[in-house]
Amino acid sequence: MKQCLLTGGGSKFGATITTELIAQGYHVHLVTSNPTPWMSVDHVTVIPVDWKTLQLNNIRTCVPAVDQIDLIFFNHNASALDQTKFKKSTVQNLQDWQHSYFVACQFPFYLIHILSNRIGPDSKIGWMLSELITRPVDQQVGYADYIGNKFTNACIMKSFSLNFPGCFFGIHPDGGLNNSVGLEQKARNMVQLIRETSTTELNGNIFSTQGDVLKIYETILD
Q: For residue 36, is it within any domain?
């Protein structure tokens, strides 16, 4: 059975992704702050996490007890800003803002290095990203750190794809040929894309759940 490490898959769209991964034959090692619904589910090993207290010195608590990992997918989010933080007499706590950056961007970076001996050339490592990194709109620019974290992760993903043995890619749940499909179908499309697309095609690219490539990088030709 293929082994998957999934972060942030305990609720909302992440729970739908977890269910689809199980249906497609993965044993899911689920890093989640919402462990209760998954404790007795077949082919799920729950790794509880408190995102508010996660630090560099306890990242290893998120490491599954397996020798080889076929898929790692970072579905968790962290942000501190919203539209209200830009109103007069309102300010964001700096410590919380800095911690959200650690959880969103630095945690995946360090976890990949910790897991380096369990990642093989055919392992697939992905991030849930967002179309907002290319097209932020007025109603959402207040979530500036969320958008910035997603872009940072896109660059982290690309840099790993150029330097680290393995396959690194991004998924954004918006866009595609038919963005009106429900969450279950999006999750099904996403898992199918990951399973059926070759490592060569996946590596370094960002896809919608229906396989359309999101272009954010430029290639400089000699």
A: yes
CB-based contact 138:144 (threshold 8 Å): no
Q: Name 162's Cβ contacts closer than 8 Å, sequence gap at least 6.
A: 204
State the residue range of the domain holding 65. Answer: 2-208
Residue 216 lies in a domain: no
* Model pLDDT for residues 73-100, shown as the tens digit of each residue: 999 999 999 999 999 988 899 999 999 9
**Contacts of residue 188, Cβ cutoff 8 Å, sequence gap at least 6:** 20
**Domain-located, residue 9:** yes
DSSP state of 46: E
C-alpha to C-alpha distances, 62 to 84, 93, 146, nearest whole angstrom: 33, 27, 22
d(CA 72, CA 76): 12
